[in-house]
């Protein structure tokens, strides 16, 4: 059996989209790319939703933490994504598929209004359904939070269906990474100017998930291999090299004692973290490699066989 049959890749090396998955074996690398792309996109969608629902537009602070809201939006995006894939793989009429997709959107809107927007409103019975209509009927300078929630969920719904149909080639994922950086920078600037909110907490997660997706798209290695190499790759040696470069400049910068403490701490943490995980992680990875199919790059590199 050829490697493209085992992994679901095309002959050109590009991963197939969800619309071509019928009868194809599930590929863990492809699924990891999908999840990483979704997580990266939520990193700039979540702060927009948070900023628009703050006190600056006449609303009470969000009842949930940014992390919990990020997880909720990610779950919704992936829910729309997998719903679309399941309906595309099912033998259903087009009209029924469209109806179920719309029903999923309406259900998510109801859940978000109930457990996020109106979490502390104390509404009962039919008031849950009447309150959005009252907000839309009331003309004020503030944008109704219900409208913001519905708009955000509609965006996630559209992006989830797009994610299921998009290409996972290295070029496409790379373009998503670059465009995401521009969107994140623009979002940070606009939110900072108009609301004063700080979204720096979403920057590092965005780069992490986006770079993971890019690395998996460019590499033919399994996610376990990428994670193993990523964990044991950088280590504290990079901190030592950069620290020596800094000391050679003999420059006195503001916060230099803090920089020196950070370098020392990163080296010590690397010694303990990588030293304590070297044996168990190596054993886990070795067991994972033993379950891989013949012809994968990991086994080819070990046996000297060119795939």
Textual characterization of the structure:
This protein folds into 2 domains: 3-220, no CATH class; 228-303. It is 70% helix and 0% strand. The chain is mainly alpha-helical and 307 residues long.
What do the pLDDT scores average to?
A: 76
Please mark out the parts with pLDDT under 50 across 5 or more consecutive residues, or reply none.
1-24, 55-60, 303-307
**Order of secondary-structure elements:** HHHHHHHHHHHH
Shape: globular
The N- and C-terminal alpha carbons lie at a distance of: 13 Å
The DSSP helix count reads 12
Global structural class: mainly alpha
- The number of E-state strands comes to 0
Helix fraction, binned, reads over 70%
Radius of gyration over alpha carbons? Answer: 24 Å
Major sheet, described briefly? none
Report the sheet-strand fraction: under 5%
Any descriptors?
disordered N terminus, 12 helices, globular, 70% helix, mainly alpha, 0% strand, 307 residues
């Amino acid at each position: 059996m050829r490697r493209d049959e085992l992994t679901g890749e095309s002959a050109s090396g590009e991963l197939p989209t969800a619309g071509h998955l019928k009868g194809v074996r599930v590929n863990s690398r492809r699924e990891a790319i999908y999840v990483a792309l979704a997580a990266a996109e939520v990193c700039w969608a979540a702060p927009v939703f948070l900023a628009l629902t703050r006190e600056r537009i006449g609303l009470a602070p969000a009842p949930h933490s940014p992390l919990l809201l990020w997880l909720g939006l990610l779950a919704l995006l992936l829910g729309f994504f997998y719903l679309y894939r399941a309906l595309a793989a099912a033998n259903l009429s087009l009209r029924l598929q469209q109806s179920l997709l719309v029903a999923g959107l309406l259900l998510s809107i109801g859940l978000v209004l109930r457990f996020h927007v109106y979490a502390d409103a104390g509404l009962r019975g039919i008031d849950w359904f009447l309150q959005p209509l009252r907000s839309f009927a009331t003309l004020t300078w503030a944008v109704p939070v219900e409208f913001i929630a519905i708009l955000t969920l509609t965006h996630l719904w559209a992006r989830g269906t797009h994610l299921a149909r998009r290409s996972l080639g290295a070029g496409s994922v790379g373009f998503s990474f670059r465009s995401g950086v521009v969107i994140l920078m623009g979002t940070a600037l606009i939110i900072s100017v108009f609301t004063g909110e700080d979204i720096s907490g979403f920057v590092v997660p965005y780069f992490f998930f986006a770079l993971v997706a890019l690395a998996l798209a460019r590499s033919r290695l399994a996610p376990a291999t990428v994670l193993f190499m990523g964990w044991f790759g950088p280590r504290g040696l990079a901190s030592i090299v950069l620290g020596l470069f800094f000391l050679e400049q003999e420059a006195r910068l503001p916060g230099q004692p803090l920089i020196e403490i950070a370098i020392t701490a990163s080296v010590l943490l690397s010694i303990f973290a990588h030293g304590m995980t070297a044996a168990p992680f190596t054993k886990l990875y070795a067991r994972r490699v033993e379950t891989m199919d013949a012809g994968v790059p990991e086994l080819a590199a070990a046996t000297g066989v060119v795939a």
